[in-house]
């Protein structure tokens, strides 16, 4: 379900959470607002605009039509149904939730402005409080600035490794979030060290203004927040490191959500293991879950309201497939671990809890296997009548 398009889907949450005031009261005209914010945005990012930003306004109906188009583009039927099936079988989504309709309604509730790389235009949504809109526009101006230095379209196109795209999105959104907060802070005030945990707490309390977000499944809430909060954390770490005179663009971009959540794994070159299924199977969908989804699963199983982002999980890489069967979807998921200790911890903890969950006419099986000599866990959740139980799909390691 991971969103890839740099439409602001949670920056309104951050603007609400900041409770800050812009340095100068924004004027009614969007063009004037963008022009007034440009020097501060350039200072906050450390880059200059190469050309003026195109701007336009949209009403709610136009926004909804745009979101429908983007969701259809990013979640074609195989990806949409495959993702729904995988998350339902893991207990991350209720069977009754229509993911596409929910996402469009949720994003319509949140979006106050967005930058569309296809038209290279920044759009403001009519009817929003101008103080909140100033923060959103500052955030979206960063995306417009990024687009003048990076091929945003190709970076965020749906690929076969969602986790790698999530990491790239965290860089883009994290940089924009840090810059937005800096622009919105009163003159002379610096970022407090715990600003992102404060923002997360304020977001969790913003239930009255955002009821759909407040009542969304944990996996949706965490995936929406992750690029902004965890991405901002990573960018702050980056700025404080010896790499502060560069930006994590191009070949320097992190390649996994683990590297975003655990910057030291990035610093020591801990690359994710690449896996592929062998044989000529016909599957509905396949992709990578990643460290983030493992943490969301752990939180869901524990009944927690947010992920534990500080502790190392020991994720090395993973790959899953969803198959269609006459009696319902089947999930086959391989997770490679850093070591046997991480594998044991998962299998005796979250894996065992997952296996205890029951689903009518389904069977859940966890097994320790070796993939390229590394310890791995194979998880299968499938109808008891599935013919492949006797010939389960296999994976092989293809490198880093």
Please outline what is shown here.
By secondary structure, the chain is α+β, with helices and mostly antiparallel strands. Helices cover 46% and strands 16% of the residues. It has helices at 11-18, 30-45, 60-74, 77-89, 99-110, 130-147, 152-155, 162-184, 195-205, 211-214, 218-240, 257-261, 263-267, 291-302, 340-348, 350-356; strands at 54-58, 113-116, 121-125, 274-277, 285-287, 315-323, 330-337, 362-371, 374-383, 395-399.
Structure characterization notes:
There is one protein chain. With 400 residues, the protein is α+β, with helices and mostly antiparallel strands. It has 2 domains: 248 residues, no CATH class; 128 residues, no CATH class. Helix content is 46%, strand content 16%. It has 16 helices and 10 strands. Strands 5-6-7-9-8 form a 5-stranded antiparallel sheet. Strands 1-3-2 form a 3-stranded mixed sheet. A two-stranded antiparallel ribbon has the order 4-10. Helix 2 crosses helix 8 and helix 11 crosses helix 14. It is globular, with a radius of gyration of 21 Å. The relative contact order is 0.13. About 6% of the residues have low confidence.
């Amino acid at each position: 379900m991971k969103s890839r398009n740099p439409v602001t889907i949670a920056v309104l949450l951050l603007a609400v959470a900041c409770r800050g005031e812009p340095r100068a009261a924004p004027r009614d005209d969007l063009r004037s607002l963008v022009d007034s914010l440009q020097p501060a945005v350039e200072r906050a990012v450390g880059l200059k605009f190469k050309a003026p930003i195109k701007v336009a306004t949209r009403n709610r109906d136009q926004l909804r039509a745009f979101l429908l188009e983007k969701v259809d583009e990013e979640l074609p039927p195989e990806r949409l149904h495959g993702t729904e099936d995988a998350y339902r079988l893991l207990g991350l989504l209720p069977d009754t939730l229509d993911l596409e309709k929910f996402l469009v309604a949720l994003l319509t509730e949140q979006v106050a402005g967005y930058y569309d790389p296809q038209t290279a235009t920044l759009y403001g949504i009519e009817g929003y409080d101008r103080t909140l809109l100033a923060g959103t526009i500052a955030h979206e101006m960063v995306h417009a600035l990024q687009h003048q230095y990076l091929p945003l379209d190709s970076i965020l196109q749906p690929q076969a490794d969602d986790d790698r795209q999530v990491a790239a999105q965290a860089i883009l959104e994290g940089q924009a979030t840090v810059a937005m907060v800096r622009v919105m802070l009163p003159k002379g005030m610096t970022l407090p060290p715990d600003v992102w945990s404060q923002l997360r707490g304020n977001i969790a309390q913003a239930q009255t203004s955002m009821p759909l977000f407040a009542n969304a499944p944990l996996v949706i809430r965490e995936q929406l927040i992750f690029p902004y909060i965890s991405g901002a954390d990573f960018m702050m770490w980056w700025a404080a490191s010896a790499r502060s005179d560069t930006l994590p663009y191009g070949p320097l971009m992190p390649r996994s959500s683990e590297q975003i959540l655990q910057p030291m794994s990035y610093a020591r070159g801990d690359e994710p293991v690449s896996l592929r299924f062998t044989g000529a199977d016909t599957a509905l969908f396949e992709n990578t879950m990643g460290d983030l989804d493992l943490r969301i699963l752990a939180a869901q199983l524990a009944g927690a309201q947010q992920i534990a982002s500080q502790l190392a999980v020991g994720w090395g890489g993973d790959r899953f497939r969803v198959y269609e069967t006459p009696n319902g979807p089947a999930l086959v998921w391989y997770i490679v671990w850093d070591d046997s200790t991480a594998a044991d911890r998962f299998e005796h903890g979250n894996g065992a809890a997952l296996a205890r969950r029951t689903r009518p006419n389904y069977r859940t099986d966890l097994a320790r296997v070796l993939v390229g000599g590394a310890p791995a866990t194979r998880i299968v959740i499938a109808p008891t009548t599935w013919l492949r139980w006797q010939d389960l799909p296999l994976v092989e390691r293809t490198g880093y």
